[in-house]
Design a protein that fits this description.
alpha+beta; Sufe protein. Chain: A; 2 domains; two-stranded antiparallel sheet
Amino acid sequence: MSDVISRDQKQSWFYSDIVKEHFFNPQNFVMGELENPESYNATGKIGSPACGDELRVWLRVDPATERILEFRWKTFGCGSAIASTSMASVMITENGGLTLDEARKLRPQDIMTRLGGLPPRKFHCSVLCDKALRDAINDYLRRSNQPDRMIRESARVIDPVAKVTDRDIEEAVLEGAHTIELVQQKTKVGIGNPSILPAVEELIRFYKEKYFGATY
């Protein structure tokens, strides 16, 4: 689902009816303070309120089966972030709940498909939800003394001059920078160190294929 041009010739976005429903009626959303926080045995957080996109999730996991029985959440993000997280909370808890291992396999593309698509510039919102979920799963494994099952995400420095990491490039691609020029505008990668540009271009191709498909 792509950007459209409105009658006033300004770029706009088209949202499916499913996205609108989850935006106006978000499922499992925490309004105000979380009730009975002690009943949840995992929490996850991604982003920062300072930049406008922050997501917190709370999980109630059955220790015997490791099924996620409840998924509650709160975000300060945009409508796409609200709809994506609302849909994810439904997908994770429906039919008795996914196990932790099954939930880890949930991809941003799966959330988008259930929503009927998101504009390309808003795809990163479904990734925000995915990262918060994985952070919560790691928290559960930490609390249950299973550190060997935790999957830690680390950032690798690509440009030591500009201090740009592979995660910075990933975020730039998710936000719509699909060429080396656009990635440089967002991150300044390689501007003072052009020798690393081939590696940057390879990362851009990798993330485009990972999130948008090989034919994008």
